[in-house]
């Protein structure tokens, strides 16, 4: 399957590409070629890690400062990224870690310490929050909220160093991953 994208229909004012729409696109099992060049995209969902058949991904001419680390997990033959903001000149600004939300840190602490057994009667809204987690890019454990986002450069098959965005579940996990 080949998709040439104009992202107008799936854009949000906030991020440039609706998370749910792009996530659904990346779930297509036969998606092999995706061209979303020149769409003013500021963000590519890490759901791209699910696009296991994707061979060609063209994202040139957008507003990207980082690429999602999920790209590293798929066997791309061609990745076109020219005319974005991926140059090392911009990395210093992105490298600064943003603090995690207290509620997200508390949820992680609750789950990691298996406190459900100790406190079985927790309110439904808290239970919902505990169940709505993603996956940590570093330890593959639960990730609440945005996690600790950080940039790691990796060389692609052509020797080009590109910045990838990872989300760690906690400061300890982040430290463990980078050392
Ligand atoms: Zn983690």
UniProtKB/TrEMBL annotation:
This is Uncharacterized protein.
